[in-house]
Amino acid sequence: MNNNKSKIRSILLVTLALIVGVSIYFRFMNPVYNNMDRVSADVEVSSKELVSSYILNEKSANSIYRGKIVEVDGIVKEVTFLNNRNTILLYGSSKYSSVICDMQSNQIEEVKKLKKGQKIRIKGVCKGFLKDAILLHCILTNTQIDE
Amino acid sequence: MNKLIVLIFFLISFSEHESTSDQFITRQGQVSFFSYTSVENIEAKNNQVLSIIDLSKNEIAVSMLMNAFVFKKSLMHEHFNESYIESDLYPKATFEGQIIDFDPLAEKQTKIIKGNLTIHGMAKEVEIKTNIENNNGSYLFTGDFEATVKDFDIKIPPILAPNIAKIISITFRFEYQPYEK
Fold this sequence. Notes:
heterodimer, A: about 150 residues, alpha/beta, five-stranded mixed beta barrel, 6 strands, elongated, B: about 180 residues, alpha+beta, eight-stranded antiparallel β-barrel, about 15% helix, about 50% strand
């Protein structure tokens, strides 16, 4: 009887250890941005609204957007390939600030096709604001934009 | 009277033009750091560093988000932000300095930039040797320097001490464009 109990306990412990191990593996070895196309956004916002929230109050904007998966729609201001990165800048609410979207490397072909003035939707992780809002690990999404 | 208005308008336009044409900006500057130890090598890059140079005063300002450094392993990113840099408390690193004996017209020059580097809320005076190139009115600043972890009150747990170098190598590459205000 006691033997059975200790067996069950051992099986439970091993199962628990496996669950913890697998969770840690997926949390750290397979971060959420590797599956950006499969995870849904925490927040959806326009590029103008994102920038204006940061200009208005950086602290409160950080509490909404920082570290979150943000899906942002906006108009292409510029596309750059500086330092071997594929970067899209979206127009913000003022002439001086935009949304800098650092694209994942698998997005390069789609990024190359973009034109200034094009309306697009991008999903990425918001990191905060300097003179522009910064989004990393971004992908272009095909979600239809309501005009 | 009309001539006076035209003159004032001209002077205002001219002074605005002059003040902005002295400033150059990069929003996509690159800063990398390297920690080499016998246990492991750690490298991270930030490609969204903001910097402005003001030629009228030979001044430079740099600002970067610490959580925008990208590591090869996300566990390192987690440790860096949560345990060492505490990026929730100190989200930005900044540098403000003076470019000593800067000649804005020289095609290539190596100059010392002297100023205050603030990381983890701690400011430290540093001198950074910088290569400066003038490419038809835009500027490229590149260089590298070393920073001591202890100077910035960054606490490494004893168990991880062998994994993190005491002196970190930092490289930078800033490609400036005229700042159009």
